[in-house]
Amino acid sequence: MSALDDSIRVEVKTEYIEQQSSPEEQKYLFSYTITIINLGEQAVKLETRHWIITDANGKISEVQGAGVVGETPTIPPNTAYQYTSGTVLDTPLGIMYGTYGMVSESGEHFKATIKPFRLALPGLLH
After folding, report:
1. What are φ and ψ of residue 26, in 5° steps?
2. Least buried of 30, 48, 117, 118, by fewest C-beta within 10 Å?
3. What does UniProt give as the signal peptide span (predicted)?
4. In this structure, is the dihedral angle defined by the CA atoms of residues 19, 54, 120 and 114, taken in order, positive or negative?
């Protein structure tokens, strides 16, 4: 881990999208809004994403690719980038976590950690 790893903070808010879900078909749609905050002293570019998504049945899905929502944003120092995306689970409960592949203005490649967060129907867990 380098100091750059600690310069990125990732915040997550999730929401269950009831109108696009179909519990009788085991289809539960969740949106997640990610805020990536650059606390460092140089701009960083988000180049890749790697997600690991696990539903309540233990089914694991991996998602890897370039950027997020079709973008590879550059985040200047002391600013944030926010986007919203979504995922469909077979169960009303799941967990997501992963990493963003980043590169600093000076060319150093590093990973920003996305800590595990829960996807759950409202009222499912207390």
Report:
1. 55, 50
2. 118
3. none
4. negative
Q: What is the pTM of this model?
A: 0.91
Token pair listed for 110: 């590093």
- How far apart CA 30 and CA 17 sit, in angstroms, is 6
Residue listed under structure tokens 């990536």: 36
- The per-residue pLDDT for range 69-83, each reduced to its tens digit, is 999 999 999 999 999
Residue 29: closest CA among 82, 85, 69: 85
Q: Going from the N-terminus, what domains does the chain have, and what CATH number goes with each?
A: 8-120 (2.60.40.1470)
> Are the CB atoms for 118 and 93 separated by under 8 Å?
yes
Distances (CA, A) of 75 to 46, 102, 103: 8, 10, 10
What are the tokens at 27?
A: 């289809």
Q: Whose structure tokens read 């998504």?
A: 53
Q: In whole angstroms, what is the distance from residue 89 CA to residue 92 CA?
A: 7
